[in-house]
Amino acid sequence: MAENTPETSGQQENGAEKLSLQEQIGLSAKTPLGLCGIGLTTACIVLTLLGVIAHMSGMVSNPYTAIVTFLVFPAGIICGLLLIPLSGYFRRKKWFGGNINKGHVVIDFNKKNHRKTMVLLLVLSIVNVVVFSLLMYEAYHFAESDYFCGAICHTVMMPEYTAYQRSPHSKVGCVSCHIGSGAEWFVKAKISGLRQVKGVITGDYSRPIATPVHNMRPAHDTCGSCHNAATFHDKTTKQFVSFKNDSQEKPQVQDIALHLGGKNPATGTFEGIHWHADKNLKIEYQVLDEKRTSVGDIKVSRADGTTETYIADGKSAEAGKAHWRTMDCIDCHNRPTHIYDDPQERVDFGLKSKKIDPTIAGIREDSLEALKKEYKSRDEAKKQIGETLMALQTKRHGAEVVTKNQKALAAASAFLVETYLGNIWPDMKITWGAYKSHLGHQDEGEGFGCFRCHDDEHQTKDGKAISQSCDLCHDEP
């Protein structure tokens, strides 16, 4: 009987066959699961490298390609790598039949081929760690980019993304306001994002997107990173330019001086409109509806411990059912970025900038009618707004005058199409006035603006009221 030696392949010990490292890997690779893991890993690595090259070179700019490159393919690599050792485990359990020998893995560093194999595995592991680190870094930054936020869920987010791109905060990243710094809110946002992805896939989302957003991070954590509420601003003049249908060439100009206020360095106290931002004040109010247009009791707490409660008859919430909210920046600046235009203001801007020729009689009224007309889709609006304007002008003046003004009417039509496409999305049910602002009191009749609280009706038990006086916020310049 031959004597076993250390160099003998297939050495027996306690009745179990010892397999070399190469044999173990080879046997595992021959299983269906092992072959699947190797194939999946190889394919995903190649596709990932091609995707990264295309992304970095600018050959491909499609956002969905970036998702596949930085998220889907790396996930495939990880799955493939996990399948390889998993196939070895299943092989040992004989889940693939009894024709594959079960044995113990022997790693002998005295053998040159074992050392080479381990070095190869070590090098490949290091390469994988480096590659995955770079991919995860790129994936993280891609997932935090404005392009990812606005362009991936195209149908849902394109209205907000379009409004954002022309806003005063267009250079501020989406995540700076919606998430801010810190791991806690990052994790919350990603968990919420999974729910939103499910909603997009199933079509279960609001049309239009409901506002206000109830899970927004407190404004002092986000807005406060750029804006200092304690900074004092003197009076700032704001000019309002408007036209009337019967005076298209002569604008009505109104200048007002806004008392922006803040912390007055002379007195050390907060004043003006930004009196509300005093860090020594805590203003709370009862929210009576989803849009926060109806306000119940209001409570003002000061640093010295004193509290005032303002109550309006018939508006207080029932005991135990009151939802109290602490006032912050977005209670007034509710559309700081995603700002939608008012059609009359846009047409008046067109007249002022001469994009709409004010010398054409009736052009203001006809432009508004063409802009406000209901169109089934954005493509239909793009085709029909100009035709509608021409038809209205023909009805008003006749074909000869329209032919004479054809160039000016074409320019006006292009401006109206641009205005429409920047503000209306029929498939998302976003029409004129879908999103209103709480700044000022232009839409006070619908509960928007300052008069939610400043109505002279919210009073303390002593009769002290929240004033509605105009000169609290502005006066003549």
Keyword list:
3-stranded mixed beta sheet; 477 residues; 43% helix; single chain; alpha+beta
Overview of the molecule:
It is a single chain. Helix content is 43%, strand content 13%. With 477 residues, it is of the alpha+beta class. The strands form four sheets. It has a four-stranded antiparallel β-sheet, with no helix packed on it. The protein has a three-stranded mixed β-sheet with strand order 1-2-3. β1 and β2 (16-20) form a beta hairpin. α2 (32-57) packs antiparallel against α3 (63-92) and α3 (63-92) runs antiparallel to α4. Residues 1-17 have low confidence and may be disordered. The chain has helices at residues 21-29, 32-57, 63-92, 112-143, 146-151, 154-165, 174-178, 183-202, 219-222, 343-353, 363-372, 378-397, 399-404, 406-421, and strands spanning 12-13, 16-20, 103-106, 236-244, 247-258, 262-263, 270-271, 281-287, 295-302, 307-310, 324-326, 474-475. It contains 14 helices and twelve strands.
Brief summary:
The protein is built from 14 helices and 12 strands.
Helix and strand layout, with pairings?
Blueprint: E1 12-13, E2 16-20, H1 21-29, H2 32-57, H3 63-92, E3 103-106, H4 112-143, H5 146-151, H6 154-165, H7 174-178, H8 183-202, H9 219-222, E4 236-244, E5 247-258, E6 262-263, E7 270-271, E8 281-287, E9 295-302, E10 307-310, E11 324-326, H10 343-353, H11 363-372, H12 378-397, H13 399-404, H14 406-421, E12 474-475
Parallel strand pairs: 2-3
Antiparallel strand pairs: 1-2, 4-5, 5-12, 6-7, 8-9, 8-11, 9-10
Helix pairs in contact: 1-3, 2-3, 3-4, 10-11, 10-14, 11-12, 12-14
